[in-house]
Design goal:
Blueprint: H1 4-8, H2 16-30, H3 41-55, H4 58-65, E1 87-89, E2 95-97, H5 114-121, E3 150-156, H6 158-163, E4 165-170, E5 176-181, E6 190-193, E7 208-214, E8 221-223, E9 226-233, H7 235-240, E10 242-246, E11 253-257, E12 266-269, E13 275-276, E14 279-280, E15 283-289, H8 297-309
Parallel strand pairs: 3-7, 9-15
Antiparallel strand pairs: 1-2, 4-5, 6-7, 8-9, 10-11, 12-15, 13-14
Length: 319
């Protein structure tokens, strides 16, 4: 995972507004629906969303800047506050630690062996299932339980959350798995892959628990089972009315704009929201009048003439 500042193309001193703007541009450019012929579009889109999740959150951004979390938002290993645990990287990138046997004499650790510590904790038996004879300390199925579950997170697009998809996820252990995302999955929902977690002799394999997140959409805002979208319209569409195309999760539809429609007017498209029990939510479309770029002398003259002949004050109720 690349540096989130690099992913969004902003400097480390970037303001929150600059980060938000950069995310919107990048998300629109690399959205899978706009790059259907590019097999890596979904991967780039997920990377953009992960970067935004870190940089748009003030606390997470500070943690990343201090080196407390990595580019995926996972805590970095900070080491032990004291002593030398003699940590070494084990299989799958996990840390393993060597505990020396023996007492305080020559060659001993000075603090008692690992077996002695366990003996003091479990009444001299070194834990139920421990093997005697001074050999290596081992557990059978009745010994101390091990947490062999593996936790991971996966961010999907709003479209994939609604329709379902198959995604490839990389676990913290380095292992990669194909995961089927069920249609209608919600943010925070967990998917359990039984027996795909860590393994240890004498123990059942753990599970993989994947927490699903839904990436912010470039156009739609989620409001429960409803969706909301700001729809840009021209000045002449607002005055004269007309039919305009509105994007939905199921494809664009036509919306009739009545004459004399003000900016901020909201229209409801029934059943065009997110799936829910017994049906689907609605899509709420709010108009936003956009003037043409640059100065237009003809438009200015027309407005001056119209203003002189038809003065009105839309702010009269504000006092």
């Amino acid at each position: 995972m690349r540096d989130p500042y690099e992913v969004l193309g902003v400097p480390r001193s970037a303001s929150a507004a600059a980060i938000k703007s950069a995310f919107r541009k990048a998300a629109k450019k690399h959205h899978p629906d706009s790059n259907k012929g590019d097999p890596k579009a979904a991967e780039r889109f997920a990377e953009i969303n992960t970067a935004n999740e870190i940089l748009s959150d003030e606390d997470k951004r500070k943690q990343f800047d201090r080196g407390e979390i990595d580019a995926e938002g996972k805590p970095r290993f900070q080491g032990f506050s004291g002593g030398d645990p003699r940590g070494r990287a084990g299989p799958g990138g996990f840390e393993t630690y060597t505990f020396r046997s023996g007492g305080g004499g020559p060659g001993g650790s000075g603090g008692g062996s690992f077996e002695e510590i366990l003996n003091s904790m479990f009444g001299g038996a070194a834990g139920r299932g421990a093997r005697g004879g001074g050999g290596p300390f081992e557990f059978d199925n009745g010994g101390i339980g091990l947490d062999l579950d593996v936790n991971a997170s996966l961010t999907v697009s709003l479209e994939d959350a609604v329709k379902g998809a198959e995604k490839r996820v990389r676990l913290p252990t380095g292992k990669e798995l194909n995961v089927k995302i069920p249609a209608g999955v919600t943010a925070g929902q967990q998917i359990r892959l039984k027996g795909q977690g860590e393994t240890a002799p004498g123990h059942r394999p753990g599970d993989v628990l994947i927490t699903v997140g839904i990436a912010p959409h470039p156009f739609f805002k989620v409001d429960g089972s409803d969706l909301r979208i700001d729809l840009p319209i021209t000045l002449y569409e607002a005055v004269l009315g007309g039919k305009v195309r509105v994007p939905t999760l199921g494809g664009a539809v036509e919306l009739s704009i009545p004459k004399n429609t003000s900016s901020g007017r909201t229209f409801r498209l029934k059943g065009k929201g997110l799936p829910k029990a017994g049906g689907a939510g609605d899509l709420f479309v709010t108009t936003k009048i956009i003037l043409p770029d640059g100065n237009d002398s003809e438009l200015e003259q027309l407005m001056q003439k119209w203003r002189d002949g038809h003065p009105y004050n839309p702010r009269s109720d504000l006092g």
